[in-house]
Predict the 3D structure of the following.
Amino acid sequence: MKKILVTGANGQLAKCLIDAAPKSEDYKVDYLSRAALDITDEVSVLEHFSSNTYDYCINTAAYTNVEKAESEQTQAFLVNAASVQFLANACKNQATTLIHISTDYVFDGTKSTAYEETDATNPINVYGASKLKGELLLSQTMEQYFILRTSWLYSQYGHNFLNTILKHLAAGKDLTITTEQVGTPTNANDLAQCIWQIIISETKAYGLYHYSNNGEATWFDFASEILKVSPLLSNSKLAKTDHYPTFAKRPKKVSFLQQK
Ligand SMILES: NC(=O)c1ccc[n+]([C@@H]2O[C@H](COP(=O)([O-])OP(=O)(O)OC[C@H]3O[C@@H](n4cnc5c(N)ncnc54)[C@H](OP(=O)(O)O)[C@@H]3O)[C@@H](O)[C@H]2O)c1
């Protein structure tokens, strides 16, 4: 039997992992919310690992509010960087494979073609910088890890662009959506399947990987698609803007190489 820890269990990706988990007694999964295991508490992390052993730890816990991170830099770095080090230390001690999720925001978005794993990073906001630091601390601490950089996650769960747009459409609101950024919306359910596949396959091809769905879109394109397939048959109208003011700078264009 494989024992697996999932951190950040109330988040959108963790909920998708629960839905996609293999229905087999060969896998025993502890899904721990922030209340059950606060990854910023190094002592709690070490204590938890001293009384439990795991084959895999999937770290979905993160500080994900890109806007607030600009004014809460210390907290963003504590959750997205220092705490990843705590988990890496604990995992290394018991040869647990750490599967960690990172972001396309480690790039500055100035490359016109798809970003590859070997491309130079250059985050332009606090969130991206804190996630990059987490990647570096992890890769300097242990070898048995997978870092999966993903982009524009959406799902039926939590706060994400899809759910925000659906809420506004249901309220019949007209919306103005930015065309400033290009990226790849990625279904968190697909990422969850990918993570389980890593575990089920027992692959030892450790390292850093880019994972997204295929294609490219602006947020306006994404909203237009949501409106098209929305079962609400909303009367809302969508308008474009090429300038939507935000606290955090955003990379202009990031996409990953298409999956075959
Ligand atoms: N969302 C995106 O568009 C996107 C894009 C690229 C990469 N990612 C990465 O994908 C991963 C999953 O993101 P997501 O969309 O599932 O995020 P999410 O819905 O915001 O979930 C993150 C979870 O982490 C928990 N958390 C925060 N601080 C914690 C702490 N100190 N200890 C334990 N848990 C803590 C939160 O707890 P509470 O529920 O208590 O707040 C939340 O449930 C993250 O690493 C994120 O950086 C996300």
